[in-house]
């Protein structure tokens, strides 16, 4: 168990030695072995190790910042209570030492390492999020990526592809946004979906009585095509039964690479009213000349324009709203297409992403 505990005093030159002597007895009472490192003008680092392997790092900075990191191998209730009691003693001793003159105290929740269920997943802009995961529903490798489905108490089943949170049963807002947020009339229209392996877009569009929807998805393992990857079986709230079959009355699912399919359609002169790109988010990298994902993105854009009707519309996802440089760079790519285009954007809150997404 790891907890970061901070104190920042108003005194710019805190007496590091006094802090160390004040806190030493707390750890010694626990039967912990002490090692102290002292750096001139840089404070102290004291490590305390218990016989069971649990340890604490006490870092005392001369400008007044005191950090206590605790790592324990006890995850049972008694172990957690012991850690809380120790931290309470540290806080009380610090308040006594500085007569309550402490600017800020922050105690962070424990991070559980090595658990059977991985609850920690990064956001697109690099922040670590702890999800309320309570079950591993599915975990397999396809020829193209690792597929996990984890159950969240808040968000239902979450589809995670190669470590990237893809979609949860709670995320209808994402699907609606990439379809035009209810402003489009799909009745009698020809629609091309690139990607969309979770089935959510296909499921929602089929309800709107299109003429034909063609979905091109390479991620499915052809040997497991009956269950159509894991998303159909375990994410019914997202895709219903639309992926139980590769063909329906108004849709077909092609298990192919979309690039040759787009090239073939362009050569044949086949045109669509809507192209919905659900393949990949805008790359985080801001070096398109060095990142192959940007090259792939530009290729998909160009090919999509070649199969889109003159008055057609192209929908795609962006990325985390905090990635302003990458999003701006994407907009610049639109001006470099072989044909002139106009674009608009909309930002939505996708529940399981825990971030705004344009």
From TrEMBL:
One of its GO terms (biological process) is spermine biosynthetic process. It catalyses: S-adenosyl 3-(methylsulfanyl)propylamine + spermidine = spermine + S-methyl-5'-thioadenosine + H(+). One of its GO terms (molecular function) is spermine synthase activity. This is Spermine synthase. Belongs to the spermidine/spermine synthase family. The active site is at residue 278. InterPro entries: PABS (IPR030374), PABS_CS (IPR030373), SAM-dependent_MTases_sf (IPR029063), Spermidine_synt_N (IPR035246), Spermidine_synt_N_sf (IPR037163), Spermine_synthase_animal (IPR015576), SpmSyn_N (IPR040900).
């Amino acid at each position: 168990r790891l907890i970061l505990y901070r104190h920042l005093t108003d005194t710019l030159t805190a007496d590091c030695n006094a802090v160390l002597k004040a806190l030493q007895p707390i750890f010694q009472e626990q039967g912990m072995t002490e090692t102290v490192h002292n750096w001139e003008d840089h404070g102290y680092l004291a490590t305390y190790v218990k016989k069971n392997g649990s340890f604490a790092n006490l870092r005392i900075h001369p400008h007044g910042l005191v950090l206590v990191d605790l790592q324990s191998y006890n995850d049972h209730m008694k172990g957690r209570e012991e850690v809380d009691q120790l931290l309470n003693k540290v806080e009380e001793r610090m308040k006594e030492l500085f007569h309550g003159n402490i600017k800020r105290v922050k105690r962070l929740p424990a991070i559980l390492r090595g658990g059977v269920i991985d609850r920690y997943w990064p956001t697109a802009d690099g922040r670590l999020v702890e999800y309320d995961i309570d079950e591993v529903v599915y975990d397999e490798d396809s020829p193209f990526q690792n597929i996990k489905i984890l159950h969240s108490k808040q968000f239902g089943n979450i589809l995670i592809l190669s470590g990237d949170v893809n979609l949860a049963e709670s995320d209808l807002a994402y699907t609606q946004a990439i379809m035009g947020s209810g402003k489009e009339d799909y009745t009698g229209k020809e629609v091309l979906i690139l990607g969309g392996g979770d089935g959510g877009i296909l499921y929602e569009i089929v309800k709107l009585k299109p003429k034909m929807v063609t979905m091109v998805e390479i991620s499915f393992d052809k040997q497991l095509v009956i269950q159509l990857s894991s998303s159909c079986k375990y994410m019914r709230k997202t895709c219903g039964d639309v992926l139980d079959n590769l063909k329906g009355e108004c849709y077909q699912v092609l298990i192919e690479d979309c690039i040759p399919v787009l090239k073939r359609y362009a050569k044949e002169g086949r045109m669509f009213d809507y192209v919905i790109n659900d393949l990949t988010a805008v790359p985080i990298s801001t070096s398109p000349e060095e990142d192959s994902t940007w090259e792939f993105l530009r290729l998909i854009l160009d090919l999509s324009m070649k199969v889109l009707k003159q008055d057609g519309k192209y929908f795609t996802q962006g990325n985390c709203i905090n990635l302003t440089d990458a999003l701006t760079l994407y907009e610049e790519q639109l001006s470099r297409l072989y044909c002139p285009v106009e674009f608009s954007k909309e930002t939505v809150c996708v529940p399981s992403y825990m971030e705004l997404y344009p």
